[in-house]
Amino acid sequence: MHALDPETARIVGLPTENDERKEDEIEPALRFGFRLVCSTALYPLEYAKTLIQLGYEPIAPRPGRTLFGAKRLMLPNIFQYASYIKSVDGFFGCFRGLSARLLGNVLSSYYSEKMAVVVIGKAPNRFDDFDWFEGTVEDWEKFLATKDGKVQTRPAGLMRKAVTHVCGILISHPFHVVSIRMMAQFIGREHMYDGLFGSIKEIWAHEGIGGFFSGLIPRMVMELSCMALTSSITYLFAKYSGANKTTCGHVNTIAHFSVTSVFYPYHVVSTCMAVQGSRLKAGNPPMMDHYINWRDCYARLLLDRQHKRGSSFFFR
């Protein structure tokens, strides 16, 4: 069965190839836009979580009850923490560092795949090296119905996804560091990182290009480990259970949540190392110990049982 002429398809009311291509382009853009809106709305909680990860606790523990009803002293939950930030800096102060975070996300989303293509080349087309003798009649029809045999590329494999993810992290990390330091200066009430360009100038002048990649390695370890394990769990479940796509999607979500919880300490280490080495009070004694490297930071946080700080939103 041959493809209909675009003009005929338009008259009949069927979607044309151009319409389908536009839909394929619009859907990811809408998903990304929705993600940016959610990130903006939840940013005050991310702000509070970052300060908790840095070990800053401005509100004294108060008597409370655990999930099981036991009495104990409890630190404020993340919503109370965010409310405290608002009481000090006002509503817009809760969004300090948001511009750098969003810019990093946009640049990462746009350029990560382009950078991955430069590193490992384009994904092969489904009909590259098409074998006319091995192909079925249906394969021939699909091939002949496409202009010059050009069709949508194969879904990316795990290696391609990993390379794309690494490229995205490398692109976004300098802005990630700037965002964390903008938030961290709340602790010492400094004004070194008040604007995006001023923050970039501050890091470049005192730390050089290496300052933009502070805390990169633990973040890379966490992100790649979570991606590899989540993908592997979902793949094995789909292969041996024969579950449908919806069920596999739920399994993927649960697996991602579980694996992220296991590797959460690397998130804390990355946040601490992003501030370490700066002139901020939050990154220097007595607010923060001096760490030789990220492994030393991980070991000492683990020793002090501080490697999970910020992981709980409610009972702390």
From TrEMBL:
Sorted UniProt keywords: Membrane, Mitochondrion, Mitochondrion outer membrane, Repeat, Transmembrane, Transmembrane helix, Transport
Gene Ontology CC annotation, any one: mitochondrial outer membrane
Topological category with respect to the lipid bilayer: Multi-pass membrane protein
InterPro entries found in the cross-reference section: MCP_dom_sf, MCP_transmembrane
UniProt superkingdom: Eukaryota
Solcar repeats: 155-240
Location in or out of the cell: Mitochondrion outer membrane
Similarity field: Belongs to the mitochondrial carrier (TC 2.A.29) family.
PANTHER family in the cross-refs: LD43650P, MITOCHONDRIAL CARRIER HOMOLOG
Name of the protein in question: Mitochondrial carrier
The species this protein was found in: Anopheles melas
Organism taxonomic ancestry: Eukaryota, Metazoa, Ecdysozoa, Arthropoda, Hexapoda
